[in-house]
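thread from #wetlab-drylab

HS: before we spend reagent money on co-crystallization trials with zinc ion, can we at least see a predicted complex? here's what I'd submit
DV: go for it
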Amino acid sequence: MTGRAILNPSIFVWELLRTIMRVAIGLVLIMLMGTLPLALAQSEPREIQTWPGEPIDSHVHMTWAAMTMEVNGWADDYPEIVDLMSAGESELGRALWVVRLSDWSLDTKEDGSPKEIVYIDGGHHGNEYLGTALAWLSAKWYINGWAEGNEEAITVLKNTEVHVLIMLNPDGNDIDTRWNINQVDLNRNYDHYWNTCPTTQPGSSAFSESETMYNSMYMNEYVTDADLYVTMHTGVWIMLYPWGKWAHQPADWELFWQIREDVNANISSIPIQNANQGLYPNCGTSRDYGYGVMGFPTFTFETDDEQFIPGSFENLNDRLEEEMDVMRYLINNVWYWRARLDVRALDVSSDSVTLDVVNYGQASTSNATLQHVSSNGEIVWTSDAFTVNATNSTVIKLDLGELSIDGDGTWQMYYQKRVINASTWVTESINASVIETSMNQKSEGLFGYGLFNPVTVIASVVGLAAILRPEEEDIELTSREDAHDN
Ligand SMILES: [Zn+2]
């Protein structure tokens, strides 16, 4: 997975330009990362002003050209962790660069399990520099950390793939406009209840624009198994979880509420709300698509609207430190953003099985089944579906029906990572060491397993999550005047 996949021929033009401009770019970059002494920075005003672009209105652009040179520089300098590719092209043919970060010398985690996957994009709206900068910094933080031997960055890159599409709307970015070149609001152009809310400029149809089409193709082809998707914007300082379309809470409300509790208690007081209530009803957004169609736990991360003041060149690390603390928390803990079932015991009798299963994840699963696989690999029995709530456990007796156990078969769990219909299904085999077979006993005798443990009794009420789900509530819309973005 190392090296680059370049889909856009026009990038070779930039290879030529890079030779000339790289030194100047590098100098300014170093200053922005806060490592260049102030005196030197002041002695190089010309380079500072040529990157990342000219001041426009009240902020400074990172141009697509500057970004292109930079991400290619990352790939050249750190091939062991940077795998650069283009997800496709903008309407005007500019590459949609995805910086894919991981320790590519390792195919899996140390224990052989697949790495966690995180997807980040920025720059849907071309005049939201700071949100795009947060996507840029989310990649740069791990590259810097890796280079400096930072333990957190190294651990993340050994266990995680972080995919960052920094600038989704390069055409709009370079002319400093919210829209893409066709005057479409890309964050209303996704195929999830497209154009079913009062909205402006959603495009002629869902995915009418190449930027959104290629973004969805990337999601469907490369990060289908992601357990976190963060899409970055500028507007009101807020994090928004689904839905934008509806005022009611999403199926995985527990997960979003737990993250809010952790972030607000330990990291930042940033408001974290359902998008519909936190901003205003919106539909066809990448956030609702990411959750409703892809099944990702999804946040819109909005930086505040105080973008860079011309000439100030505030250190980006300092400017976005709190936002990066939140991102680091979300990425460090990505393992928890799904259901994580672990079978502690499986007692098999002649007519039933009794299952003791714990969910270490922060998301519930409502369609879990136990399956028996025969020695020739065929699934010969699937239990009724049951629920295992987030950070909880359950003991459940399942009727084997007509199944006769041949002794050589295996058992596996088949379940969805989250409650939302779109979430990925996983199949996980059950370790033989937890399986006990007592074929000669009546199952009634076995069902005593765990019954007298008050914790498991309480936890075993299947369907508790459904009962606990909050009623739909119509909270009065707030911040609508300020919330010019989403
Ligand atoms: Zn935006």
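DV: Confidence is low (pLDDT under 50) at residues 1-9, 11-59, 441-484.
HS: ok that's useful, forwarding to the group
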